[in-house]
Design brief:
The chain is mainly α and 153 residues long. It has helices spanning 8-20, 25-68, 72-102, 106-120, 126-152. α1 (8-20) packs across α2 (25-68) and α4 packs antiparallel against α5. The longest helix has 44 residues, at 25-68. The two termini are 39 Å apart.
């Protein structure tokens, strides 16, 4: 029996698509992976599995939050959760960044650095950055495909 797992390269591609699509990245990625593995039924299962648990947890928390929002312990737990989320985000950035750098693609690294500089220092609109990166990526892909076709002939 073949399991139809995805490899790391496919996961990176799907993550890039999920990030550039409107909506929550986790939901977008789950739809892509579910569809790739098991078609429409897989996409439906993964999106429900991604959305329902946080929805239930947040509903329960919001029901009790008003009673506990001024509690010192609850505030400390919330601060701890913020630190945990920051750590997860840093891990993802470092892992994806390492993958980009390990492929030795100068264009990818320059887009990564340029996007960071544009957003952080110059407050450039993220839509403009996505459009520019999309064009640069498309041109880079066409350029590499042209070199491969030339090398094969």
């Amino acid at each position: 029996m073949q399991l139809k797992w995805i490899d790391e390269h496919e996961m990176m591609d799907m993550t890039a698509i999920a990030q550039s699509s409107p909506g929550a990245i986790a939901v977008n990625a789950s739809i892509l992976v579910g569809y790739h593995v098991a078609g429409f039924a897989g996409a439906l299962c993964t999106v429900l599995g991604t959305v329902i648990p946080p929805l239930v947890i947040l509903s329960v928390i919001s029901f009790f939050y008003a009673a506990f929002r001024d509690n010192l312990i609850v505030n400390m737990v919330m601060k701890g959760m913020q630190a945990g989320v920051a750590a997860v985000i840093c891990d993802v950035v470092l892992t994806m960044g390492r993958s980009v750098l390990s492929t030795k693609q100068l264009v990818s690294f320059l887009m990564l650095a340029g996007a960071f500089i544009a957003v952080y220092f110059f407050k450039v609109n993220i839509i403009l950055i996505l459009l520019v990166c999309g064009v640069v990526g498309a041109v880079n892909t066409l350029h590499h495909q042209g070199h491969r076709k030339g090398a094969q002939s």
